[in-house]
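Task: sequence in, structure out. Protein: Vacuolar protein sorting-associated protein 16 homolog.
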Amino acid sequence: MDCYTANWNPLGDSAFYRKYELYSMDWDLKEELRDCLVAAAPYGGPIALLRNPWRKEKPASVRPVLEIYSASGLPLASLLWKSGPVVSLGWSAEEELLCIQEDGVVLVYGLHGDFRRHFSLGNDVFQNRILDTQIFHTEFGSGVAILTGAHRFILSVNISELKLRRMPEVPGLQSVPSCWTTLCQDRAAHILLAVGPDLYLLDQSACSPVTPSGLAPGVSSFLQMAVSFTYRHLALFTDTGYIWMGTASLKEKLCEFNCNIRAPPKQMVWCSRPRSKERAVVVAWERRLMVVGDAPESIQFVLDEDSYLVPELDGVRILSRSTHEFLHEVPVASEEIFKIASMAPGALLLEAQKEYEKESQKADEYLREIQELGQLTQAVQQCIEAAGHEHQPDMQKSLLRAASFGKCFLDRFPPDSFVHMCQDLRVLNAVRDYHIGIPLTYTQYKQLTIQVLLDRLVLRRLYPLAIQICEYLRLPEVQGVSRILAHWACYKVQQKDVSDEDVARAINQKLGDTPGVSYSDIAARAYGCGRTELAIKLLEYEPRSGEQVPLLLKMKRSKLALSKAIESGDTDLVFTVLLHLKNELNRGDFFMTLRNQPMALSLYRQFCKHQELETLKDLYNQDDNHQELGSFHIRASYAAEERIEGRVAALQTAADAFYKAKNEFAAKATEDQMRLLRLQRRLEDELGGRFLDLSLHDTVTTLILGGHNKRAEQLARDFRIPDKRLWWLKLTALADLEDWEELEKFSKSKKSPIGYLPFVEICMKQHNKYEAKKYASRVGPEHKVKALLLVGDVAQAADVAIEHRNEAELSLVLSHCTGATDGATADKIQRARAQAQKK
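Result:
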């Protein structure tokens, strides 16, 4: 244990800091870091270097080289810089490299040097140029703050949805501030800058002077400032050599340290972790590194090489030409277990396990001591927690073996924490490997989440490792393996040295019917890479037509899209394609395409019936469909034409079409309608009233109701209305008029072709029993009983039924017998039935 704590350095009485090597860097730098623009992404992210930046001492002919490395120094990309002068480099939260040029143009590159996009920071920035920039990260995304040549600050909190905000002017600012930084407070971004001995805070509306609480007197300038990883704390380095540390609001002072060095530091960053015992600031000069906090003494390291500091959530990464190190506060669990002469339960349990492996009885003594204090559960938890904070796998295993050993003596210790820690450490050790180069700590990993880590492995094209992690952690397929395979397929389609056929086959063999994988998304990526034929081949594997069709339309493969839409049976999808085809093709080609697709043609006709009648007529004409064309002209005669002449003309066109279709019945019916229309117009002119658009029956009825019986009869003869129908029409009309005298004359004009029962029924419908009885006597024998019952003559109906000896009629009469009034009649029917049965 003594050897293990050799690299621990105390900061005051409450905390230790340690620095250990993450990787030995083999990146073969040809220049010092000081001669490069450097940007390192947090959470163990990649490192970008822009060699030979624009400096006066460099010859103009030398082009800069942009290089991207993993955190372990493995090269990921290298490209010759051919654009304008770069002011600053930075990484977005999605690990995209932002190269901010002097003219305000931002070029965005991927992890492997692939150009993604570019955007401008506005005309104001272009005209005044950029003096300095800072890239920062908030809950809204990655933001950028700019200092222009006009000494004005411009800020955007999210470059993905770029909205530039011009900050208020700083009074008297005529040169570059000695130092400035971006603060994020209350869901808003602010600028803090130093002008001589004064500090100014720029928010959305005002420029306010601020004064740090408890700052030592005599300060004439602020040389450096640093905000913590979480934006909660701020550090200020003054020209007096003092470092002020406090809250980001400047209202509360944590401590102030005199480092006795007045030279401005190269870098100053915070080094703290969540629930830190002793928050500290790391200050770097050319060959010295100092860790200061609320303690009278500082921790100092000698820097053998030019170094670069990368602040992290729980520490600081230190980059140099040969090494990549991590400096952090020793976690409480590790301190409790490993500090000299520690009697913490975790320390005793670790010793007990080691003695057990030696088969020493001391193991029992240590274990009994822990159990007597009732701290075995705490000891196991300490060992598990400390294992998570250790970088070396051997020490992780030692601590986990101790935890496993202690668990054996506990009855109900929940295994989840132990199992999850083993899983997490296996994942962390895999990604920390030199060939992977993501040196995440356990704290960073938990903050980042497994999903984001998988995304970062995918960005590095480490698909096998990502899939192994998903399978090891048993993540749901849609969140894990399926998603990674989809990313792999999208990368595969970008390999233009492989044929379309081979790429499509390889993707299908690997993906198959994996749930959650959309072949249409992969095809869209292929199309975006200019590989249209590959996209079409991939779409053949897409089971959902609704996903195939939109992309086919985008690729201008409309006819294939129509076939796929028809195969799907989704009429909405077919309509979508048809409307797209209509706009894309000329009229003739569009109609020819429809003729080859009967279902599409039928659906388009339905659409035209409601939306485009003229197009429907053209379709019928092109197909020589005279039957439908005739029907079209008939509908058009009623829908579009108001003048009688226009309607008759449309009907004549319809009749001609029916004749061409050899549908003589429809043609004759159409001609009859034309005659009826002309007659109705003549009737309106001669008699007044409304006749147009009435049916033939309604026209006859209207004439009768108007007292024009002769015209009604003439109309019936002209249109060959059968006598029975005419008698019904006249009977109904006269009854509605209650012209009983005319009705009686009509009934006696000749023998009724419909009989006289309808007269009885119509009269009773009009509640006129008197008139009904007149016609009941004239009803034929077969309907006599029914007629008598209608007029209420039950007794006579019974006599007739008995006379006819008809069982059905007897039953009908009997059903109408009610109460005492018809009792005699009912008895009479019963007797007649009895006599009939005897015979």
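The first helix runs from residue 123 to 128.
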